[in-house]
DNA sequence: GGCTAATATAAGAATGAGTCTCAGTCCAAA
DNA sequence: TTTGGACTGAGACTCATTCTTATATTAGCC
C-alpha cells in the first residue's frame, strides 16, 4: 500500500478499479473529490469539499460521494455534530480512529497500536456476542479540545 | 445510584435539582421525556419519543431536549445514520458504549468491564497527548447487525 | 384569594442539509 | 454514427430541526 495521504497514481488506479467493478466511470468530478479527500488528510464536511471545489455544484458532490461510497472508496463519518464528514475508505489509507473537537468540530485521525486494537477487538467481540450482536467493525472516538481550541 | 433503568423518584429528584440549578422548571413535558428515555433503556430518536408521547408536539420535545441537555440531564448520541438519538446522561445511568445496527439503525447499550475501560483510557490519553489534544471523554461504537437483523 | 413577572407551551412557519428529478451531455461498443 | 447507459448541472423538493409568536402556567409576593 503506497497511497497513504497525498494523491498518487496508485490511489487513482485503485479507485478506478473499484468503480469499474460496479460499472461506474472515474470521471473528473469523482477524481476531484478523491483528490480533495486525500489531500485533506482528515474527514471533511460538505462545506470543506465545496470550498476545495468551488466550481462544482453541491448536488454533484453529494451524488458523487454516494457513488464513491457504494464503490467502497469513500466512508461517511458521523462526528458529534449534525454534519456528515467524508474520508477515504480505510483500506485505501489505514485503520484509524478519530479525535473530535467539541468546540470547533474538527475531526482528525489517530492510529492506534496493533496491541491496542487486538485488546479492543477481543473485548468487543465478547460483549457483542453476549447480546447476540454480529460485529462487523468498531469505531473509537476521542472527544475533547483540539490544539487550536484550548 | 439507584436509578439505572426504569423511572424512580430518585431520578426525578436528581433531574429537578439539575434543572433548578439553571433556573428551569421540571414541568410535565420535561418529566414525560425523562420517563420516555428512562423506560426505553437505550438511545431513541425523535420519532420514538413522539411515538411514546403522541399528545405532545415535536417542537416541544425538541425544545425540552435542548433544555435537558443544558441542564446535564440528557445526552445527544450520534449514531451511524442522519438521525440524532437521545439518552439520559451517563452520570444518571452508568458509563457505557453502543451497539449500532447498520441495517435497522437500532442503538443498544453495552457496559464494558472496568479493566477494559482502564486500558482504553490509558491508551487514548497517550494518543491524544501526542497530538496536543485535550481529552475529555471517549466513545466506542460497535457496528454490525442486531439480533433481529441477521 | 389575586397580581405580576418570568418561564413554558402549542402551533406552525422558517431553515437548511441532503435527495431527487429532469433535460441534456458524454462515452463505449458495435 | 447510432444507440444505450452513465453522468452532469440546475434547481425543486423533503424532512429533521429550529425559530417565532401568541397564549398559558407557575412561583413568589401581597
Describe what this molecule looks like in 3D.
By secondary structure, chain A is of the alpha+beta class. Chain A has five helices and six strands, in the order ααβααββββαβ. In chain A, the strands form two sheets. Chain A has a three-stranded antiparallel β-sheet with strand order 1-3-2. Chain A has a three-stranded mixed β-sheet with strand order 5-4-6. The longest helix of chain A is centred in the last third of the chain and has 17 residues, at 114-130. The radius of gyration of chain A is 17 Å and the shape is globular. The termini of chain A are far apart. Residues 1-6 of chain A have low confidence and may be disordered. Strand 6 (134-145) of chain A pairs antiparallel with strand 6 of chain B. Chain B binds a DNA duplex (30 and 30 nucleotides) through helix 4.
Task: Give descriptors for this structure.
homodimer; 150 residues; alpha+beta; 3-stranded antiparallel beta sheet; 3-stranded mixed beta sheet; 5 helices; 6 strands; disordered N terminus; DNA-binding
Q: Would you identify the regions of chain A where 5 or more consecutive residues have pLDDT less than 50?
A: 1-6
Tell me the β content of chain A. 15-25%
Mean residue pLDDT of chain A:
92
Helix content of chain A: 40-55%
- Which structural class matches the secondary elements of chain A? alpha+beta
Number of helices of chain A: 5
Shape of chain A: globular
State the order of secondary-structure elements of chain A, H for helix, E for strand. Answer: HHEHHEEEEHE
Number of separate strands of chain A: 6
What separation lies between the terminal Cα atoms of chain A? Answer: 36 Å
Instruction: Determine the oligomeric state from the structure.
Output: homodimer
Amino acid at each position: 500500500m503506497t497511497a497513504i495521504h497525498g494523491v498518487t497514481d496508485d490511489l487513482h488506479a485503485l479507485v478506478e478499479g473499484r468503480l469499474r467493478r460496479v460499472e461506474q466511470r472515474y470521471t473528473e468530478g469523482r477524481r476531484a473529490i478523491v483528490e480533495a479527500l486525500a489531500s485533506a488528510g482528515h474527514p471533511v464536511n460538505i462545506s470543506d469539499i465545496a470550498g476545495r471545489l468551488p466550481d462544482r455544484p453541491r448536488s454533484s458532490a453529494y451524488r458523487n460521494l454516494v457513488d464513491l461510497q457504494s464503490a467502497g472508496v469513500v466512508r461517511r463519518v458521523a462526528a458529534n455534530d449534525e454534519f456528515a464528514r467524508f474520508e477515504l475508505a480505510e483500506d485505501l489509507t489505514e485503520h484509524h480512529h478519530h479525535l473530535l473537537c467539541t468546540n470547533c468540530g474538527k475531526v482528525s485521525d489517530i492510529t492506534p497500536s496493533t496491541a491496542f486494537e487486538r485488546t479492543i477487538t477481543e473485548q468487543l467481540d465478547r460483549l457483542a456476542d453476549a447480546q447476540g450482536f454480529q460485529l462487523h467493525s468498531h469505531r473509537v472516538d476521542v472527544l475533547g479540545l483540539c490544539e487550536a481550541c484550548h
